[in-house]
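[SOLVED] Need 3D model of a two-part complex

Original post:
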Amino acid sequence: MKEPLFHIIKRTDVVWWKAWLIRAIAILAAFLVAAILTVIMTGLNPFSVFGAMFSGAFGTERRILKLFQGTAILLCIGLAVTPAFRMRFWNIGAEGQVLAGGMAAATVLIFAGDRMPSAFVIILCLAAAVTAGAIWAVIPALFKAKWNTNETLFTLMMNYIAIQIIKYFVLLWSVPKGSGQIGIINGTSQSGWLPKLFGQDYIFNIVIVAILTVLVFVYLRYTKHGYEISVVGESEKTARYIGINVKKVIIRTMILSGAIAGLAGFLLVNGTDHTISADTAGGNGFTAIMVSWLAKFNPLVMFLSSFLIVFLQKGAGQITTDFGLNKSFSDILTGIIIFFIIGCEFFINYRIVFRSSRKEAEKS
Amino acid sequence: MNPFVMFLQRAVIMGVPLIYGATGETITEKSGHLNLGIPGIMYVGSISGVIGAFLYESAVGRENVNPALGILIPLVACLVGSLLMGLIYSFFTVSLRANQNVTGLALTTFGVGIGNFFGGSLIKLTNSELPSVNLTTTSNLFKTPLPFAKDLGWFGEIFLSYGFLAYLGIFLAIFAAIIMKRTRVGLHLRAVGENPATADAAGINVGRYKYFATCLGSMIAGLGGLYYIMDYANGVWSNDGFGDRGWLAIALVIFTVWKTDLGIIGAILFGGLMIVNNYIPGLGLADQELIRILPYLVTIIVLIIVSAREKRETQPPQSLGLSYFREDR
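Solution:
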């Protein structure tokens, strides 16, 4: 029988700098393709396109702040899904968990807003959001633990239930009645809004997420819980054999996962938007899955991947306003870049051996 | 018209895109690939058809549209567009063994982006003088009902009043069910999705089946997008108009426990739930949003029941979501 033209071998021996070199090349190649596409669409020279991107992301102090605020939120949701992913629990329900948290926070804001001191409202919002997110996440986990119900499909469906519930309450509580939106909550008293730090909005969010990133990193890397998560992810059978209660780990980790997602909802409602709608999470619950995966589930690296994606979105957003294109152009660019990064993982994990080179290898 | 007949007719029209989406996704999932890119693929199928029809209509002028070409061009454009999306997905997940969830979600971002981008800037990109993308001529071709529909009263309204794509969708769903249940190809496909290593050992070309099922599934799902834009939306593109129908289609796959023939009834049921507020007096806008929870809720309930009963025929394909690498064994 004829030997196939090439042959794929798994490799485990890639040194870290080589792996990162491959990723860097992939990102560069992706930018190149994205640039070519943009030039075809806009008919402009690539440098002015990239210029527009940079100005969109870093142009003014406000834009830089928004860039980091966006990164913080995306990173926070990425942190939420990571513990679950590390134990191979495919929680793609972050969107719903964030919304559940946001909805709970908004409810507290609306009903308790002007009745107690602001600091108290904030604490109440936080508690409500974290609890709601955790509940939204633990439901699929309970069924996974009990009957091994497919968690990917379950968490996916939970997203749309959360979206519909929010749409319901937005219509029910809309201000003014019948407008179909809730509007800024406590706009005059600013009760329950996260305070400005250094005279700026959003800094509070950024600081919280920065602390959280380190905490999650330490939790996953240096604690017993983190170790148990890794073992369950590697092999459930091994975990059971060495006496880890797999069901308990699944449920505990999903509570944590949902709680962090709920926190992201709290940051969005109390710290950024001061309102709630079905678009509050804005698809970030799904983007965060890619953020986490691109960073190989490492919380510290996730800062880079979420920054990259938010930079792209802001930059591409600027291109579209500058050149009168549709704003969805940034989604196309994000898609292309993620494809390249997904693709390059193959070359990090596998090696292609061609027929001729293999014979030479055997000779030598 | 009798309101019940009208309701049923609208429910079918709402359901047809879901039939296509669910049939395509089921075929893909049977090969062991959970394609979360289906919503994006349906957008691309939709916009590809729009682009094809738009270019053709502006090339010959609205009055001179040839009925055969007017249908064929958008149809082929839609199939090619969704095939390309299917190829992207299968290249990454089959050849490069990338994570299926990540690839699928990226594909949805990408596809929805393509749909909205071209839908929103088609006029600008082609320097056309038309004020908006409005393909009524092509849409009317797609909406031509079967003969006698007008003369047969309620029977005609319920069974004969749809465009040909609706019948094609139902036919494909039944045909796919027969293929999967009764033929060797279907048996092989299911084997690949259940346990690719065993299928491989039995001499089945696993990679080829996975590619084929994914691409075919994408093309079928893409047709759902085409039906939506040409039939339901009268050929008028609006950004995000397709909404969450792609996700509903994925829900439908679970709801009908991976059976495409059941999917027809499920789709009409889901379709009915989307419009039921127009037919129940006293039901407000907000209540309608609550009713729309139902498809997702019943899907979850089905998912739980199926997993609790552990009946073999109703389980998800066993290797669903896992990449297959021969040397991993």
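Edit: Chain B has a mean pLDDT of 85.
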